[in-house]
Amino acid sequence: MKRKLTKTSVEKIQPGNQDKIVWDTDVKGFGVKVTPRGRRSYFVRYRVGGGRNGRQRKPTIGTHGVITCDQARDVARRTLAAARDGKDPFQEKKAQINAETVGDFWEVYRQRHLTVRTKPRTQADVTAMFERHILPVLGKQNLRAITKSDISRLHSKLNAKPYQANRVLSALSGLFGRAEEWGHREEGSNPCRNIQRYQEPPRERFLTQAERKRLAVVLDLHEKRNPVAVSFFRLAMLTGCRKNELLQLAWAEVDLDNKCIVLLDSKTGKRTVFLSSEAVQILQEMAREKGNPYVFPGAKQGAHLVNANKLWLKIREEAGLDGVRIHDLRHTFASMAIEAGLGLPVIGRLLGHSNASTTQRYAHLAEDPARAALEIIGKKISGS
Q1: Does 20 fall in a domain?
Q2: Last residue of a domain, one of 81, 98, 115
Q3: pTM for the complete prediction?
Q4: CA-CA distance, 196 to 19, in Å (whole number)?
Q5: C-alpha distances in angstroms, 112 versus 98, 226, 261, 370?
Q6: Is 92 within the bounds of a domain?
Q7: Would you say residue 256 lies in a domain?
Q8: Does one domain contain both 23 and 138?
Q9: Is 65 helix (H, G, I), strand (E, B) or coil?
């Protein structure tokens, strides 16, 4: 079967009971294979030296969706040109892959996947994990030779920090998944598969009413010296926004007339954050820095506040809030919403959760208001 291969024409090919091969009409030797499960992968067929007697090769170029049809066609053209010159691109690539280290592939993965398909914060977090924990241990080892026991040993070395250990395992799993997908390792060989993750005890910390009062007093004391950061902490608890959502908040996203913030690119995509009257008042009273588009301007001209942690550590110490993180202000917002009698679906919407199971972590907090309501009902029924 032949046709002009394009994004649309490739996606229109219906899977059958066996692999389907469709050849491109523009570049002879370039084609796409569609498996019964609907997986579409581009390949190129050539003979070394270009003659009839040359050894035939048919290497896979990449998976549709990961690589575009035009990109695959360009690779096919270069491969065919090299084959006509007597070279064997397949063997050269195979030799290169066989000698490839984890560190070598990390650079490929970072440029081809991480910087293209993930948000800047994710890029920074994953890069930090590789540089601190992964590359010093596995960086010089052969990518194809890494086994499950290698990954398990690294995971075990981090057992004192279960959250960190599990995040490192997830980061490695992503890298080896792409290595399989791009032909740098055999399919189904991801060495991170079936390694048991450490149990992660809940880290939610909610401020009590007494703690919230102490925090309010300390924030008042710091307001004149650090108005931007203090407003940031207050809005964190009044909106339940994630730390980076507020740090990167631009005035263009603030709609005071409609009492809301429209985040153009939150962790879960575009979403609307509703503002209470108290939150609106804080924003109304904030000074706008000329030439700076951000609500919370940083030290550098035109930049947003980058790090509020140093001041937060001082404030939490003065307020007697040992171990409380800035992120716990978001958890406190959720706990107060439950105290107010709001249901989990509403709270999930306020927090910007894309998955209802994420909000479920607060389910146990809803028991206290429910028990209190049950006592009221019981007394009314009994007439007491």
Answers
A1: yes
A2: 98
A3: 0.55
A4: 35
A5: 20, 41, 33, 50
A6: yes
A7: yes
A8: no
A9: coil
Task: Indicate whether 213 and 348 sit together in one domain.
Answer: yes
Q: How far apart are CA 18 and CA 16, in angstroms?
A: 5
* Each residue's pLDDT tens digit, 158-205: 999 998 999 999 999 999 999 998 888 888 899 999 999 998 776 678
Give the CATH number of the domain where residue 279 resides.
1.10.443.10
Q: Which pair of structure tokens corresponds to residue 214?
A: 């102490």
* Rounded Cα–Cα distance for residues 111 and 117 (Å): 10
**Domain span holding position 177:** 102-181
The residue type of 298 is G
Q: Are 365 and 332 in contact (CB under 8 A)?
A: no
Same domain as 270, residue 225: yes
Same domain, 75 and 126: no
Asked if residue 187 is part of any domain, the answer here is: no
pLDDT at 315 over 70: yes
249-296 tens-digit pLDDT: 999 999 999 999 999 878 777 889 999 999 999 999 998 999 999 999
Comparison of pLDDT for 223 and 98, the residue scoring more: 223
* Residue with the larger pLDDT of the pair 118 and 215: 215
pLDDT attached to residue 129: 95
Q: Which residues contact 297 (CB under 8 A, 6 or more apart)?
A: 228, 289, 303, 304, 305
Cβ atoms of 135 and 102 within 8 Å: the answer is: yes
Per-residue b or e along 93-113, where b marks 16 or more CB atoms closer than 10 Å to that residue's CB: eeeebeebbbebbbebbbeeb
Answer yes or no: are the C-beta atoms of 241 and 253 closer than 8 Å. no
Q: Retrieve residue 299's tokens.
A: 């030290």
